[in-house]
Amino acid sequence: MSRIAIGTSGWQYAHWKGLFYPEDLPTSEWLEFYSRHFRTVELNVTFYRTPKETTVRRWVSATPEDFIFSVKMSRRITHRHRLSDTEEALKTFLTMIAGFGRKLGVVLIQLPPSLRFDPERVERFLRELRRESPRTRYALEPRHRTWLQEEAYAVLRRYEIALCQADSGGRYPTADVVTAPFVYLRFHGPGVLYASAYAETQLRAIAERIRAWHAEGLDVYAYFNNDVHGYAVANARTLIECVERLTKRMRGRGR
Q: Domains in the chain, please, with CATH?
């Protein structure tokens, strides 16, 4: 049975207090509260620093058995080393994500806008990645237009890396291309980056695409990164509702 996982990019936003989190709820209980409303979260903190083993254990223990953490790859690998000479940094990162165990969903490899598609560099990195981490799911979010070509898609398919389909209001290039047995979606805002909300008509259209992929047997992971004013929470909730309505309608038709 394929999976549909919809949530937000992070949960630790002070400006969500009163909008999503109760005013009197301690921050130490925010993740547990979040996990009552969503069954997945994308961790951005792992891009900036490596959480302690005890921190990862605390996150895992605070969430239900079926909860999923998608984890952003360290910027040491993607931005500082730019996918080259990554052995030490990759080993540290892989040791950390092992702590999520069965709750690990997808690892997001977000690239800097200046990193062009270089077949040799990418092949070397992905070969090493798959040698060290053969079963983990990875999605790659490129931000340079040179990645949107068949040669790049072929490399991603060879290593079963999903091309992240990211909406950034046109700031960064993206493509509706499937390169793995799952789909990874990110929503940064349809207008102002991180600070604009999706209309319900837009979310209904996204729900249709998700249901179509699901019908093909693909898992779908979708995360909203438009955290300003709590837009991410509201949009994720609406998308979940849209997908559920479509699912009920299709079951009613016997499909």
A: 4-252 (3.20.20.410)
Amino acid at 134: P
Phi, psi of 135 (to 5 degrees): -110, -10
Residues 249 and 255: their CA atoms lie apart, in Å, by 9
62-111 residue pLDDT tens:
999 999 999 999 999 999 999 999 999 999 999 999 999 999 999 999 99
| Contact (Cβ atoms closer than 8 angstroms) between residue 15 and residue 228 | yes
- CA-nearest of 223, 205, 207 to 215 is 207
For residues 153 and 177, is the Cβ–Cβ distance under 8 A?
yes
Give the bridge partners for 40, in sequence order: 68
Q: How many CA atoms lie within 13 A of 89 on its CB side?
A: 19
Query: For residue range 167-176, what is the model confidence (pLDDT) as tens digits?
Result: 999 999 999 9
Measure the CA–CA gap between 129 and 126, rounded to whole angstroms. 5
User: CA-CA-CA-CA torsion for 178, 164, 11, 137, nearest 10 degrees?
Assistant: 70
Structure pTM?
0.96
